[in-house]
Specification:
The protein is of the alpha+beta class. The protein has two domains: 33 residues; 103 residues, Lipocalin (Beta Barrel), CATH 2.40.128.50. It has four helices and eight strands, in the order H-H-H-E-E-E-E-E-E-E-E-H. An eight-stranded antiparallel β-sheet has the order 1-2-3-4-5-6-7-8. The longest helix is centred in the first third of the chain and has 34 residues. It is elongated. The chain starts with a helix and ends in an 8-residue tail after the last helix. About 11% of the residues have low confidence.
Length: 174
Amino acid sequence: MKNLLLPLFLVTCVGLAPTAVLAQSAAKSASVAKVTPSPSRTDIRSTANQMAAGINAAEVALEPIELAIAQQVHTGVLRCELGASVTLTNDPQSPGYFNVHGKNFRYRMFPVATSTGAIRLEDRQAGAVWLQLSNKSMLMNQKAGQRMADECMSPAQLTVAQAMKDKPARGLLD
């Protein structure tokens, strides 16, 4: 019987050996994990604030051409068709940026150069575009594929629109 117990004991020890090794390595890795400190919440917040400040600084910096376009934007309350209105105000903290709001929408827009000479403001994140022509302005939502406000006019645009009605441009065949 003694001869039978010894081989059984050895087989059991050999079978459990890998488990013991794994347990020891897991204990070592757990102790190593405790040694390396994780960043504190203060460090994480500080890093996040620094990254946000860098993004804001990059966002705020507009090219000279974009700043020139911003000087041409009509601001104030612009009356639109169907009794709607859109309010455009300069962003006091970021030259060249505009706050555009009306019923059920609010955007922060910046100027974009165009090849046609039309004034274009965009809020790329929201997909909103403000187009300003000499006689009217419109707000479009590119994501939804719809006009949100049309025939919006400042006093200067109203004067141009009235002049276009009073004295229309000559047609090509006239």
